[in-house]
Specification:
globular; two-stranded antiparallel ribbon; about 0% strand; single chain
Length: about 325
């Protein structure tokens, strides 16, 4: 029984080790801030006043404990699957590698963002963005794996290569990877597009699916007319058709979208609307308040990651889950 709950214990131990190391390093000083961060006493980019103590943005930093709680809850849920002997009929149940990857990525969001808000260092900004991309790659790559009948090896290698290239590109070339690409934002669109294909796959939808990306972009304030007015800046729109290109077959199962998918979407959209108010330029910014909009953004997006976890667990497949996402080459 002890071996069966090892992932939960490893996750708990990993965060514990991080917390101890974070405090010890912080007590000795974080070093020089990133070029885009404000000085001690000034208002940070995310509204909270910059503190000279252990945490540069105390409230915004601690708000990330929501991700830690959700990540550990996911691992605990997976451990209970094993204890209850639930059949491995879904890739997000038990100690399936995909489920464990999702739990690890959800948990990683907490420390990643804590380092950014707590330290204001260049490394903090890098690992914060790396943690966000580590999470957002999973849903749409998993969808493509289902629709393209990838083997596990293909899925994990594609994930690892994508994350590694992003990490190196961000560190050496900048947040846009030197090519004007916001991979996190693009991944949101690719998730929605691949989800549309997973729900309503058909040959003609493979051709039209990329149009859904324009709707997603519009929700976040970038309209088709703005894209057409600056094609050089928005060259990446052609990537909206990548899911349709790779979705060779209908998915081998169906998911139930109500309530968990829609709760996740609602949580994220409400969080985003609050995120817009949690900046130093917002008229509602109160830098010395215990209530910080950006911390609420963290808590609500953590809730969204849990809702999406529950959503993926609703899939019922006609192909038994096993060591591969598909047995096809």
């Amino acid at each position: 029984m002890k071996n069966r709950v090892t992932p939960l214990r490893v996750a708990s131990g990993a965060f514990g080790a991080f917390a101890i190391g974070f405090v010890l390093i912080g007590l000795s000083g974080w070093g020089p801030p990133a070029a885009n961060e404000q000085a001690i006493g000034e208002v940070s980019r995310w509204c909270e006043r910059v503190n000279d103590g252990l945490l540069r943005e105390p409230i915004n930093t601690l708000g990330n404990l929501g991700f830690v709680a959700v990540g550990l809850l996911i691992f605990a849920t997976l451990a209970r699957d094993i204890e209850r002997g639930i059949p491995s009929s879904n890739r997000f149940m038990g100690h399936d590698p995909v489920a464990l990857l999702y739990g690890a990525a959800a948990l990683f969001l907490g420390p990643g963002s804590m380092v950014m808000h707590g330290t204001h260092t260049r490394f903090g900004a890098w690992i914060d963005n790396l943690s966000m991309v580590a999470y957002i790659l999973i849903p749409w790559l998993f969808n493509l794996a289902r629709l393209g009948r990838w083997r596990d090896r293909t899925f994990f290698l594609t994930y690892a290569a994508s994350l590694s290239l992003y990490g190196a590109g961000y560190w050496f070339l900048g947040p846009d990877l030197g090519i004007g690409l916001d991979l996190f934002g693009l991944s949101i669109a690719l998730w929605i597009i691949s989800e549309v294909l997973h729900r309503w796959w058909s040959p003609w939808l493979r051709l039209a699916s990329g149009l859904a990306g324009f709707l997603v972009a519009a929700v976040f304030g970038l309209t088709p007319s703005e894209m057409l007015a600056a094609p050089g800046e928005n060259w990446w729109v052609f990537l909206f058709w990548v899911p349709g290109l790779l979705a060779r077959r209908p998915p081998p199962g169906r998911r139930t979208y109500t309530p968990w998918y829609w709760l996740g979407v609602a949580s994220f959209l409400v969080a985003y609307s609050i995120w817009l108010t949690g900046t130093d330029t917002s008229t509602t910014c109160r830098p010395d308040s215990l209530f910080q909009a950006h911390a609420i953004w963290h808590l609500l997006t953590a809730l969204a990651t849990y809702c999406f976890f529950r959503f993926f667990r609703t899939e019922r497949s006609s192909v038994p889950a096993g060591p591969v996402i598909s047995s096809s080459v």
